[in-house]
Design a protein that fits this description.
alpha+beta; 2 domains; 7-stranded antiparallel sheet; 6-stranded mixed sheet; 15 strands; 21% strand; binds zinc ion
């Protein structure tokens, strides 16, 4: 919950970064114990409301009511969990309950009220924890020593900006989400983004962002590394499934320990893949914002293609559009634009990739990257042409005389291991059989 601020104070945005925890086995036990206790708080609220429903009473859902019930439960009810931590669970429950109630009121009957869960994230607000570089002190219940843990990386925010930390368990590991109040960027006079300078953004698969700005300037961010990562992940997943298919449990049968281990490894690989793609998309969005700030672009008009994603386009293309993660691509750009003081609007992109930006005649969408117009002999990059069309429809100053001429090329995810053979990925077959330092081909374990 954002705190109240005086209207004169500089504008801020809230940003969250995740860091892993480096813990000893004993610390891990204590932290998991906290998450289990949070799960107990959650379960207690569910049970309380089940009783109330049986008595035909109104359920307790508001934060204040739940806090009163917690206070009535007395100290020491929830293991090592302190009051602030327990209250954050009540806040989470209350928010989830009201969000569901609102959706159901709006006619969405698939919305479900909160259900039982074993581990519930715990949030501590400013003043209850301490953060010193990579060391984090989490409070515990009265009479118990606080927990000191180490983060596995430096945080991107100065400690004074950090407002809350959230302890979570995800993908078999413990993490903290650190939320900070980041001030919106300030610029020297004459260098601030100008809202009248509009750039159009076309979202794509090969090029996550193609941007056409004023004065015929353009930016193309290549996403081939991301696509390579998707392909390798898909091939890797297939190989894994094939290798273990013979010991997959039958429906209704409990899996063996080996099978459970396999499932765990599969989940870890899945999560690593998701992190890699998200990271690369963040980098791509950052590139766009840096480019826009340097050119004093104050408005980004982003073509939103989500209308076309619902259409069935066949097995391969459906997979491609799912891999695209368009929602994250837009959200990452929006967040960074907001922090940079650039406004972003989503606009309908229909027809922008099949219109000539010079003479506005309709042309069939080309299969390759080059768009050439049969009526006015314009040729140019397809995605940049689409971006120029989006800009032109939303007040951008691109004219036929100054079509995108000065193009900056950038790559997203250049760090991804699948991007070139020189970057060694354990999923990739060794390209020189038996070469020194080569991990060699990964073979499945021999059948028992
Ligand atoms: Zn034309």
């Amino acid at each position: 919950m954002p705190r109240r601020r005086s209207p004169q104070s500089p504008r801020v945005v809230h940003r969250t970064a995740r860091a892993g925890l480096r813990v000893t086995p004993a610390q891990r036990r204590r932290l998991l114990g906290l998450l289990v206790s949070a799960g107990d708080v959650w379960a207690c609220v569910l049970e309380l409301n089940a009783w109330r429903r049986a008595r035909q009473d109104r359920p307790l859902a508001s934060y204040q009511e739940l806090c009163r019930a917690l206070a009535a439960a007395g100290p020491g009810t929830f293991g090592e969990l302190d009051t602030e931590g327990a209250r954050s669970v009540l806040r989470r429950y209350s928010d989830a309950w009201f969000a569901t109630a609102q959706r159901r009121k709006g006619g969405d009957h698939r919305a479900r009220f909160p259900r039982r869960r074993a581990l519930v994230p715990i949030r501590w607000y400013h003043g209850t924890f301490a953060l010193e570089r990579r060391r984090l002190r989490l409070p515990a219940a009265r009479g118990r020593p606080p927990l000191w843990v180490r983060l596995d990386r430096d945080l991107p925010y100065p400690p004074a900006q950090v407002r809350s930390v959230t302890l979570i368990y995800d993908a078999g590991r413990l993490w903290v989400d650190v939320t900070a109040e980041v001030p919106v960027a300030c610029y020297p006079a004459g260098q601030e983004p100008d809202p009248a300078r509009v750039a159009g953004v076309d979202l794509g698969i090969i090029h996550p962002y193609a941007v056409a700005g004023p004065d015929g300037q353009g930016l193309l961010v290549s996403g081939r590394a991301i696509r390579a990562e998707h392909r390798m992940h898909l091939a890797d997943g297939k190989a894994r499934r094939r290798a273990v298919a013979h010991r997959a449990p039958k429906p209704g049968q409990k899996g063996s320990r080996r099978w459970r281990h396999h499932r765990r490894r599969q989940r870890l690989a899945e999560d690593r893949h998701r992190r890699r793609v998200r990271q690369a998309q963040h980098e791509a969005a950052k590139t766009v914002i840096t480019w826009a700030v340097a050119r004093r672009v104050g408005t980004l008009a982003v073509g939103d293609p989500r209308g076309v994603l619902k259409l069935d386009a066949g097995r391969k293309h459906n997979q491609r559009t799912r891999d695209w993660r368009i929602g994250h691509l837009i959200a990452a750009l929006k967040d960074k634009a907001e922090a940079a003081g650039i406004s972003l609007t989503l606009v309908d992109e229909r027809g922008t990739s099949s219109t000539c930006p010079a003479c506005r005649s309709r042309i069939p969408k080309p299969a390759g990257r080059v768009l050439s117009c049969p009526s006015c002999l314009f040729t140019g990059h397809r995605d940049l042409a689409a971006a120029a069309n989006i800009a032109a429809r939303n007040g951008g100053g691109t004219t036929s005389a100054s079509l995108v001429a000065d193009v900056t090329h950038r790559r997203a995810g250049a760090h991804l291991p699948g991007v070139s053979p020189s970057r060694r990925d354990p999923r990739r077959r060794a390209h020189h059989r038996g070469a020194r330092g080569s991990p060699g081909r990964h073979r499945p374990a021999p059948p028992t």
